[in-house]
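Example 3.2
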Amino acid sequence: MYSGFYNHSNRSIHPNDVKNVLDRAFANHVEKIIITGTTLEESKEVLKIAEQSDNLYITVGCHPTRSNEFETNPDEYYKGLLNLIKENDKKVVAVGECGLDYDRLRFCSVEVQKKYFEKQLELPKETKKPLFLHCRNSYADFADILKRHHDQLYGGVVHSFTGTKEEAKIFTDLGYYIGINGCSLKTQENVDAMVSIPTEFLMIETDCPWCEIKASHAGHKYVKTRMPCIKKENWNEDILVKGRNEPAAIIQVLEIMAATRNEDIYSLADALYQNTKKVFKI
């Protein structure tokens, strides 16, 4: 979306505005950004972006819905991920995004997802990197796999969390952090689950360009910072695109978290930031 292409169209709606998006984030007090890699090739592409600033970092891995990419030559694909991590140690702060997604089995079967989730867990064993994890409607299998490898891993975060209080506790008991974004705050049950998580196990994120906070979300009423946006067809480099999330909007997630947890927003922001720096060593 930041390149100007939407919905898999070959027609560009507007110029590539990655620089505008990053500049807007830094102007809104975002200090560091971790860009997620979801395939081997995409990880290489986001590395090019991260090389533009000392405050940009990446993850390297294969999203569960893209796990079929391993199938042609699993060992070669794995080596590609491993080499990318090792050759860019200072820029790559985590292995992932990897995990399980049973909501979108049309893209990749359960068996293939589980197979290559476990295979990717070999990456932190070789690199000592934390994990950037994805879990959708698959908590039992996901937790079982993590538990089997637990003693050989280096922690990490279950990002974009949408599970229950009980599921969150399973992961915090294992020492994993929980990442909260707009998708984590859609329903009151989501909000209650977030509130139940100890601050020392929380992180904050946007998962942009996805997971924007919408008016229909239970947490929306706590948003104080409004960000003007326009349709992509009317693109302007200084204004957010409607329906496309950005790092600058992370303040809205923070406002919801602070209000619903009844915590001082500045103290919470600092705690979340310190958690992130600690896990990813940035």
